[in-house]
Every structure is written in structure tokens, then in C-alpha cells.
């Protein structure tokens, strides 16, 4: 499903899989994240070139997770931009990492990188961390639209992975909450306003309290902010990831 959020910004997704964002400007089109699937990425490219009649001149990967960068294969003739850490993490994917993933031998790596942030007249990109050490956000400056990558999940339980930093994740979202965005485009789920950042802060803070023993599972299960999110298996998986990191310390 393709949603037009503003004159310049389209979002493909909302079904729980990773969202792909299309930004059009006077130079052409930018694609933020490329999905897990080559076929889906190809259809998105056809839409941009065939329907929007725009030339894609830049692709951005918000982080290294396969559902955000494996569609890069369809854009191997376009400049692909990510943080240098994202590129490094993608380049380290070996046969063992790739064995359960669909038909990808090696991901197409970004061709240009930045260290901490990247800016032009339209976009501001910042590597912030939190969800993964390389998680970046993209801000469409004049439209005040935040492409949050997996720092925000809307309507779905977030993927809390073994390299997530819960403390840092909450701080990043609290900082973003002090700004104003007309749209917050999550990594997964429907686009929403600032409330989706509030809900994520509340979610992650409660997980932190669960680990500290100051809130119970029963209280969490009765909270709408948990019970209404889809993919409940991600909730227990996330807690297990956090506990295994805690045990390893
Ligand atoms: Zn992710």
C-alpha cells in the first residue's frame, strides 16, 4: 500500500513489514530503506520511475537489518548512502548470518557513507543508535517529517535485539519528542504524529521498569500500549534478548 503523506513524501508499507519511504524533490527521488524483498523493491522502483516519472538519485539505509537493506540489489546503479557503521555491519554478514534469509548471497553495500551525520538542503540524517548502534533517522526538513527507522514501531511490538541499548533508545526518543514533526514514519506500522514517539517512550520505559522489578508482567499485559500491539512474540523475544545481555555482563 502506498500512502502520500505530503507533496514530497510517500510511504510504502503499514502492513507490519519494514516501511519504505519515497521522497521526491527537484532533483528526482530518494528511497529510504529498501525492504527485505527484491520483488517488492523492484515494484517500488517501477512506481517511482513509471508513475511518479522521477529518476532515483539516492538510496538511504537507516540501519543494517536485512528488512531495511536487502532490496538494495534493485538499486545497485544508484548511490546508496548509510553511516559507515551500517556499511561495516552489512559487510560482516557471513554465510551463517544469511542462511535463513531469502535468496541473498551478499547484500549490496552502500557506496557512500557518513560518520555521525549528513545534511543537504532537503535532508538531515543522524546516526543516533538505540535500536541498533547504527540506527539513523532521516528528517525531511521543510516538510517536518521524521523517518524514524526502527527507533519507532507503531501498532507492533518493537524488535529489541541483542545490540539494542534501551537507555540510549529512550534518551534519543525523548530528545526527538522536544522537536515538532508533522509526521513520524515508523520503521514498521502506520505513520502517525508525535504521539507515536510518546507511546514508544512509555513502552521502553516500562520494559526498563520490568527488568528492574518495579513493574509486573500482569501490569504490562493490562496496558493498552502493550496489549494492542501486534506480533506479541516479539515482546517475549525482546525481553529474552535484554536478559541474555544482562546475564553476559
Ligand atoms: Zn531493525
| Bound molecule kinds, no repeats | zinc ion
Number of separate domains: 1
What does the main sheet amount to? 7 strands, mixed
Beta percentage is 15-25%
Number of helices: 9
**Nearest-angstrom radius of gyration?**
18 Å
- Please identify which CATH superfamily we are dealing with: Ribonuclease Z/Hydroxyacylglutathione hydrolase-like
Distance between the terminal alpha carbons, to the nearest Å? 43 Å
CATH hierarchy class name: Alpha Beta
Protein name: Beta-lactamase domain protein
Domain Metallo-beta-lactamase: 17-188
Pfam family, one: Lactamase_B
InterPro entries: Metallo-B-lactamas, NDM-1-like, RibonucZ/Hydroxyglut_hydro
Structural account:
There is one protein chain. The chain is α/β, with parallel strands linked by helices and 249 residues long. The protein has one domain: Metallo-beta-lactamase, Chain A (4-Layer Sandwich). The chain contains 9 helices and 12 strands. It has helices spanning 38-51, 66-69, 84-91, 95-98, 166-177, 195-212, 217-221, 224-227, 232-248; strands at 2-4, 9-12, 20-25, 28-32, 56-60, 80-83, 112-114, 117-119, 123-127, 136-140, 145-147, 183-185. The strands form 2 sheets. A 7-stranded mixed sheet has the order 1-2-3-4-5-6-7. Helix 5 (166-177) packs antiparallel against helix 6. The longest helix is centred in the C-terminal third of the chain and has 18 residues, at 195-212. It starts with a strand and ends with a helix.
